[in-house]
Specification:
Residues 3-119 form the Response regulatory domain. The chain is α/β, with parallel strands linked by helices and 121 residues long. The protein has helices spanning 11-23, 34-44, 60-69, 87-96, 108-118, and strands at residues 3-7, 27-31, 48-52, 78-82, 100-103. It has a single domain, classed as Rossmann fold.
Length: 121
């Protein structure tokens, strides 16, 4: 069983993704802002992180930069989520080190396939 951390300020998105993650046999953790997400990433050492880009307190770009600087999460796969599906934002997230980018509203089939692809075998 893999541990997947969802960092998103939208409680409905967290709940929905958690259901699908748990249904897939994995453990889902939730953080509702970037600071909380970084703390949970350090404490739980997740196998995968789902990261919203636009959040209060600390946005996803800052969180991703911090994750990539921490030894513990430097190589942890990250899926970036955003309602703003611009190619510039997507390119920026890839340049910061995300492994996949999914636009909101989330297509569950795409999400599940991406999760499956990025989880360690």
């Amino acid at each position: 069983m893999s541990t997947i951390l969802i960092i998103d300020d939208d409680l409905d998105i967290c709940a929905l993704l958690s259901v699908y993650i748990k249904h897939g046999g994995h453990k889902a953790l939730e953080a509702h802002d970037g600071q909380e997400g970084l703390k949970q990433a350090q404490a739980a050492n997740p196998d995968l992180i789902i990261l919203d880009i636009k959040m209060p307190i600390m946005d996803g770009t800052v969180v991703l930069k911090s994750l990539r600087k921490m030894t513990q999460t430097a190589k942890t796969p990250v899926i970036a989520l955003s309602a703003m599906g611009t190619s510039d934002l997507r390119d920026d997230m890839y340049s910061l080190g995300c492994n996949a980018y999914i636009s909101k509203p989330v297509d569950i089939e795409v999400f599940l396939n991406t999760v499956k692809t990025l989880l360690p075998a």
